[in-house]
Amino acid sequence: QPRLVESGGGLVQSGGSLRVSCVASGFSLGSYAVGWFRQAPGKERERVSCISSTGARTDYLDSVKGRFTASKDGAKNTAYLQMNSLKPEDSATYYCAIGVFPCSTFDRRGQGTQVTVAS
Questions:
Q1: How is the chain classified by DSSP, letter by letter?
Q2: What is the pLDDT of residues 8-53, one digit of tens each?
Q3: Dihedral of alpha carbons 28, 33, 38, 39, sign
Q4: Is the Cβ–Cβ distance between 79 and 29 less than 8 Å?
Q5: What band does 1 get if pLDDT is binned at 50, 70 and 90?
Q6: What is the C-alpha to C-alpha distance for residues 113 and 6, in angstroms, rounded to an integer?
């Protein structure tokens, strides 16, 4: 059964860092672009980042450029989103999804991990 499982969320102070992970099982992440999305209560879903199937290309939401970095580890079949200089407005449920670059749509997504940034 193909699955995506996120982890690494939590509570962090403003200015802090977190790295969220997305472990794939039942298929190879190397065959897909991986997008990170977020959604806060009462707000629309945002595409935060996308990394291409090979990892050669990345794309980011303007508000996270320079602060967030997406990556993939083929050996671990895992994708990561490193989040630095976090702000309260980054608080949301973050989930990973697979698709085609630049991840405008997706084929499958995980359940998400909660990120809360305290001011």
A1: --EEEEE--EEEETT--EEEEEEEESS-GGGSEEEEEEE-TTS--EEEEEE-TTS--EEE-GGGTTTEEEEEETTTTEEEEEE-S--GGG-EEEEEEEESTT-SS-SEE---EEEEEE-
A2: 999 999 999 999 999 999 999 999 999 999 999 999 999 999 999 9
A3: negative
A4: yes
A5: confident
A6: 6
